[in-house]
Amino acid sequence: MIRHVGTVPSRPRIMTGAVKDFTIDNFKNSSPTSCDNIHRSIDEFPRDFFTEEQRRHGAVIVHLILAFYGFLFITFVCQDYFLPSVLYICLDLGISPDVAGATFMAAATCTSELLVSVIGTFVTKSDLGVGTVVGSGVYNTLGVSACAGLAVCGQPIAVEKWPLIRDSTVYATSIAVLAAIAVDNVIMWYEALIMVTMFFGYFVFLFTQYKLVEAVEQWRCNSRLPVFERIKRLIFCRKYASMKSQNVTLHRSGTQIRQYGTVEHQLQEGERASSKIIFTSTKSTFSERDQSDVDEQTYILPPSKSSGSNMLLIVWRMFCSPVNFALWATIPDCRTNRSLFPITFVMSIIWVSAITYVLSWFLTICGDTFHVSDVVMGIGVLAVGSSIPEAVSGIINAQNGEGSMSISSALGSNTMDILLCLGLPWFVKCTLPMSMNGGPVTLQTDTLFFNCMCMIASVVILNVAAAISGYKMHKPFGVMCLVAQMVVIAALIINGLNVARDDGTVPVRCT
């Protein structure tokens, strides 16, 4: 629970693991088992339009159908609008897919966590933001990787070592910083400032990393070496350390493709490009390799869906027509008008954030109707709901043959959740005057350190699974991540239940 020191008296708490505290208010003349004194996960959302009795007698089906529509919304937004707009950002800025995943895709998918953190810090004054960030972090690390690995069909997809090690190291460092500054359950302004500064430093590093590597390679080439070794290094550097992008203009399309490293295929003058927009990014490193070893990943923006005549396809299209119409009416399609991709990107973020919140709301209502424990609700429902955009994007990227982009997006989103979504609201609150309810932020949680250890363990398991798989993304890799995900979630749930029991309190349900 996040509260300003001295504002309200302390009260007994029942911990709910990674997501939130289960509290029982001891108001005067109130029974400890009174429904008015119980704070559940469903209380964090607006009041349902059905009563609990109506939901138990079948009205919950409405929430399940609406939740399924929420899945469709997120899937269609990511596939038809969000990922194409990110692709055009890559083309215009000349950045690699892994950097795009760790920055723009991560920024888009963590907007819901930022909103929840702001609400928890300034409105409800609860640990809602901390719990959501920690809970979704485990799912983003192993769950998204499992979904992406299981979605791979055919040949395995290469996973680059450098982006994986880079993003894993930064994320693990962010977790360690969070655990260190929250060890006393009080967040000061300079501690929050450290988190925000680390976030901007991470962004600067992502966009300048290749220039740094180029500078190191040039320095190594100019070091004192034997004559023949210097000549060899000089040739090596000139061949592989040139990071200037080469622009290739597609005939008739006006689209520019920026290829990094060694260009393997070049369009001849007058050659006509395909009607599909193709983005190729070479995955060469600074280690010497043959031209044939350069691994290429190709993005193909899907054309308009082909028509079908069977009845099942017609029924499915009718079922999806409300979703398609709503998106068509509110989001411009940058695949038909490229100049609109900034608007497409922003509108996609708005849709993903709104649908993620509504989806988490409906899933919470369903769990509360079926009397799911608040511990399980927080770890197994709310965290999953907030991680759906990352999972959908990861699956689509894996099917497009871009494994590193899927993992970088998940790890980058986790890093942004900790450093920005928590650090920025905390810093703003700490710098506000006391008259505006500012001051140090107080955390009331007994499971944060254990949850941070679980998140670090998830990062280690992800890297071990990638190494065992030979840095290839395929179904065995997805199975390993899925099994590890289930083990970590089970540990979080058991720890949350044990904390509630050790506090001498028992979850109370309203009947």
Automatic annotation (TrEMBL):
Any Pfam family: Na_Ca_ex
Residue stretches spanning the membrane: 60-82, 102-124, 136-158, 192-210, 343-363, 375-398, 410-428, 448-470, 477-497
Organism: Macrosiphum euphorbiae (potato aphid)
GO CC term, one of those recorded: plasma membrane
Any single GO BP term: intracellular calcium ion homeostasis
An example Gene Ontology molecular-function term: calcium channel activity
Main location class: membrane
Subcellular locations according to the entry: Membrane
Family the UniProt entry places it in: Belongs to the Ca(2+):cation antiporter (CaCA) (TC 2.A.19) family. SLC24A subfamily.
Topology term for the membrane: Multi-pass membrane protein
Top-level taxon: Eukaryota
Keyword match Membrane: yes
Protein name from the UniProt record: Sodium/calcium exchanger membrane region domain-containing protein
Keywords for this protein: Antiport, Calcium, Calcium transport, Ion transport, Membrane, Potassium, Potassium transport, Signal, Sodium, Sodium transport, Symport, Transmembrane, Transmembrane helix, Transport
Every Sodium/calcium exchanger membrane region domain range: 64-207, 342-487
